[in-house]
Amino acid sequence: MRFLIVDDERTVHEQLTSLIPWEQLGWQIVGHAYDGEEARRLAEQLMPNIIVTDIRMPMLDGLGLLEWLQQTNHPAKVIVLSGYGDFDYTRTAFKRDAYDYLLKPIKEAELLSVLGRAVDELRQEHQSQSDRINEKAVLNQGLVLMHDELFMQAAVAGQLDENELHVRAEQLMIALPEGRYTTIVVKILEADEHIQQRYGGDRHTFLFAARNIIQETVGKQTLVFRNLQKAAEFVVLLSHQERPIDWLTSDLDKLRSAAERYLRVRLRIGASAPKQRISKLAAAYAEAVSALESMRIGGDEAVAIYGHATSTATNQIKPIESWQEVNMLLDMFLGTGALREEALLLDKLNEAFSAAMLSKMSATEWKKAATELLAKLEFAGGHDETALQQLNEARSGIQEVRTEQARQAISTLLQDRLTKASSTTRLKNGRQLMEVVKQYIDLNYRDVTLDDVAQKFYMNKNYFCSLFKNTIGESFVEYLTALRMEHSKQLLEQSELKTYEIADYVGYSDQRYFSQVFRKHTGMKPTEYRQFARQQAE
Question: Maximum distance among all alpha carbons in the chain?
Answer without folding.
Answer: 105
